[in-house]
Please model this.
Amino acid sequence: MTEARIGRGLIEASAANKVRSQMANDPIIQFQHWFTEAQRARIRLPEAMALGTADAQGRPAVRFVLLKSADERGFVFFTNAGSRKGAELRENPRASLAFYWDEILRQVRVDGRVEPVAPAEVDAYWMTRPRESQLAALASRQSATLTSHAQLLGRWEALRHRYRGKDVPRPAGWVGYRVVPEAIEFWTHRDHRLHERELFVRTRGGWKRKLLQP
Model:
C-alpha cells in the first residue's frame, strides 16, 4: 500500500470519527446524516413525514406532509393555514413528526413546539415550487367541502389562463411551520426485535442522550 493511499485512509477514518462524534452529541447532525443515507438508498420521498397534531380538546389527527428543511432551528413544512392542521396548530401549537425508511431499517420521531416560518422564507420557497403546484395551492381551499373533483379542476384551469405569462401569487393563507424539537428519537432495526432506540432531550445545557429499551 502506497504512502498516499495510507494517508487518504487516515484522513477518511478521521473524518468518519469526527462525524460519529458530532452525531453522538447533536441529533440534528445525526438526522441530516440519516436523511442523506435515505436519499442515497433511492427511497421514494424520503422527506415524507407523518405529522401529528391535536385540537384544544386534545383530539389527535395525523397525516403525511413533506419536510422542506431541517437545521438547528427545526423541521419545516408548508401548508394552507386554513386546513384542519392549520386550525389545530393555532389552538395547540405543538406537534409530533415520524419518518420511516424501510429500505435502511430506520425511523425517527420528533416532538416539539411549532412556530410560524417568516413570510420572507415562505416567499422564497414559494418561488421554487412548480408552476402547476402554485396554481393548485391557489385553487384549493384546503379541507373545505368540495362538490366534485371537476369543480376543483375547473378553478385550476381558470387560474392557469388568468396567470398565463404572469407570476402566480402566493395565497395569503399558504404558510410555513417549523417544529422546534424538544425530543428526537432514533430507531434502528435489529434482529429478534432487539431494536436500538436512542433518545435526545433538549435541556437548558444542551442535548442529553440516553438509550431506551425496545
User: Anything to note?
Assistant: The radius of gyration is 21 Å.
